[in-house]
Queue: 4 jobs
Job 1
Amino acid sequence: MSFAMSFWALVVNALCIPMHIIKALGLYEGYKRVFPIFLQRISINYNKIMHDEKAELFRSLSEFTKPGKKLTLLEIGCGTGANFEFYPPGCKVICTDPNPHFKKYLDKSMKQNDHLTFDQFVVASGEDMAPVEDESVDVVVCTLVLCSVKDIPQTLREAHRILRPGGAFLFIEHVVADPSTWLYFFQHVLQPAWFYFGDGCEVTRETWKYLEAAGFSELKLRHIQAKLMFMINPHIIGYAVK
């Protein structure tokens, strides 16, 4: 399978040459203006399918709230604010995203989720959240983001830095399939095209390995199969404690 996979991935990569040129010329940045429109629609459907899994994960937020205080939460790659409905009342939310064009949709989500207190929107990548102080938040949330960051270990180091001792990193991420499956084959073959469709998304990442090596004191992680488009069905979900 490895030869065939490499061959067909090369074919797809060749077909993407026009996109490679567009990106090299800096014209791909225009897609970032319209990507929030697509993501908003995708997020609505994703929340319907993954509602129970998300609700179960975010119920654990109460475990990381200091007695007598409100929860302070930072979301990496907040996008359109699809997770807001799952956050507890009174929670103070700091939003970060490298794409400033999400702001319009984020403002709408903020108004629809007035049970939350919004602190600020920081235009920043997960790898560099310098405006956020060390050990300043109770929880960092990261959903469908580690598939597209340029440096997963650095993103996790930044999350670890801004978390207070005993704070938690909550995650839901799609990952690469088992190597023995045809899905693994198609993920690798179609990855060159998927990169552009998903604004830098990679479906071939073994993200759980980075979480295991990130130096958290506790890691609760499980693999699940989501009922989504076949390319992103394999998921991991859980949390890590600093």
Job 2
Amino acid sequence: MDDDAPDEALADIKGRQIGGWGVAQIAVGTGLTVYAMWVGILQPGFRKVPLKLQVPYIPASKTQVQNVMTLLRGRKGNLVDLGSGDGRIVLEAHRHGFNPAVGYELNPWLISLARIHAWRLGYHGKVAYLREDLWKVDLTKCKNITVFLAPSVLSLLQEKLHAELPDGALVVAGRFPFPDWEPCRIEGHGVDRAWAYNMQAQKQRLLGKVSNM
């Protein structure tokens, strides 16, 4: 479907005269569609996840993906996307030469969707999508990490990243920044903004805080 399709559909609706019954049908139909998507596709991955750690699936926009890749420019080696959703960050990372590029996602439906995207683009077997709890993923050998997660999750995840990632690792967060870290670079504006964090700098900053206590 073309990107302009939703705008064209909206223009078409605006151009028509619809009565109260038509409005009701649209409202009910939209609500049922959203509910059906939640029950059938999104909810299964959340059933065993504590409420504060649940992250609703919101696909990254093209601009958001581009900003993430800009912050990763000049980097190489492996890349891990935590909470990879439909897999678009992993695919773009593979296009930019990151190998292996791996996405970790808890929702089985989203993993299937990501694998379909990879197959359609001819990347089957070249990228990996694994169903695993991000809190159990071993990150000790990861060089590049990307995350599009909620602030409530980032505040806890930064402890795991600090403990496991090597000094040379770079972490890129989209939509929301890590609450207690200082970024080395920022790209984009508003909801499309992305933040890059150098792990060595974060560890040195923490050591400095401890020394001053």
Job 3
Amino acid sequence: RVSPRFLYYTEGPKLVPFFKATCVYFVLWLPTSSPSWFSALIKCLPIFCLWVFLLAHGISFLGAHSSARKILAGLIFSALGDAFLIWQEQGYFIHGLLMFAITHILYSSAFGMKPINLLAGLVIATISGLCYTLLYPYLSAPFTYLVAVYIALIGFMGWRAIAGVQLANDLWTWTKLSACLGAVLFMVSDLTIAVNKFCFPVPHSRAIIMATYYAAQMLIALSAVECQDADVARKRSA
């Protein structure tokens, strides 16, 4: 198992651009009332940095690990979703929703279907149902159907990430735990978006949404690099 200290020293430096770009976003805090290509760039910049983070591990690494390729593809669709949501008041919210729906499908595929962990699936399904029940009275067509599908997709993604963490059998890894925490934060971020948009204003909603979103994407990107770091660790200990 790759140790957290090893991950810190091998992956930490590669994440420095991401942390800097995230700081730039929060320091500039550009108003959402005036969407522009510049504000879209600033919002997407941390995600671009996560592209670079994965690409920095080499094309051969991405070629050898389909899960890493799927997470990279998910990050690309996430950036497109971020850009569309800059202009959500101009009618592009559904476009952003579609991009993130594709992202969750890609992440779910990257996390895989083993182990199944039906209990985790049941818990996530229950929480997803409760969330939709909360939102349903505030939804109107086409969001009545679109939000239901989206909740199902992100719930499925969360289930597959959580199922990978087998604490009881001591089969977990730090990167699987990273994927799990990232998925949970992604769900928190999107639930905050939904409640704030459809139900009632959430205090400090933008800060909550973006902080949990960027943290989620970083953790999910980090979950893709375990195979290479395990190889490096074995070579160093040999």
Job 4
Amino acid sequence: MKLSTITCALLGLASEVAATALTYKLVANEKACFFATTKKANEKIAFYFAVQSGGSFDIDYEVTGPDGNVIMDGQKERQGDFVFTGKQIGDYKFCFNNEMSTFAEKFVDFELAVEDEARVTIPSKQGSSPEQTSALEESLFKISMQLSTVTRNQKYFRTRENRNFSTVRSTEKRIVNFSLIQILLVIAMGALQVFIVRFFFQAGVRMLIGWTTQGARKGYV
């Protein structure tokens, strides 16, 4: 009976939250918008994003309400985690803008969640006191908050891992390119040295032949 009560409570919690998590690829000079719909006034809207790769790991964003007014925006942000109250019923628009990049593609992880502030009432079994039900509710909501914290930490570490991996790949490419340039410079310097030595050697031979010819002519005369 206790297990079924907890299960009903967890299902109730899940039914009060509508979340969408996506990874989107923005090409250069692209602006992409996504929407979250509220069915009641004063619902909580959670907005999270993180640039996983591309360019300097930054993006412009803008959040617009159903009335067209800008709720929040930012330029060249790497990541953000916001929660605000949707006072109006309708579609809230979340836009990412990569028009500042001329060639860099960017991968953005983001999550939109709409949740009702009203708590779900846990069905109490016969004979249980209100204090026991209240304690169970608090425990469930603490577990929910801890799971949310764990999820956000996982996202943070994933973002750090992707950025560090991108930095490693960029450094590796630079090392390879620098090594290739160094090899080409060594080959060019070697070829230049051979050319200079041959030039001076040929010039010396010509001068020696000229002196020998002049000496022979003078002796002959």
